[in-house]
Amino acid sequence: MQRHFDRDLEDIKDLLLRMGAMVEDAINQSIRALLDRDTNLAEEVIARDDAIDRMEVDIDARTIELIAKMQPAAGDLRFVATIMKITPELERIADLAVDVCERAIELNAEPQLKPLVEVPRLARDAQEMVRNALDAFVRGDAALARQVIDHDDVVDELTAQSYRILLTYMLEDPRNISRAIRLTFVNKYFERMADGATNICEMVVFLVEGKVIKHTAGAGAP
Q: Global pTM?
């Protein structure tokens, strides 16, 4: 019975990692679509989102069935619960990549407002946080998870800095407002991706250490 449970759990974990790879690819392609002003690529990312949604539903169904059949306890139950919480975070991050692509399509219809300096850094940070969050889960690495959590403050500050810069463009010329607002949204989407990575890492710490650090000050510190 335990071998059957372990095999089913490993299958679910593999499916989660496949979903994570698809989400990472969606983030990467959304960044490219924005920076290269590639509307066709943006539309491809949007079209592929349905596959990620279906994968989330499949993982949910399998984990619920596993709990019902095997009634796992202690560490096994914590692992299953972690998967059930990580999956919707990944789906939301993929949705944010779609949001980036939708704003990119709108921005591509107008002249570029300004060279994109802050956005690429913000996007890279968010992408790296998501990648490291998944690595922390795979390796059961609470230390890496805490590093990701700590880096969220950097992303928050960069987002605020970018907003201040875009605000100057809006104040200088009302014709800049719509493009600046769309770029503000894009920055916010990447910040929320980083928040999603942070949430995943809080779950990794719970999985590895049995500690609930959500909503605690200095959560990244051991």
A: 0.91
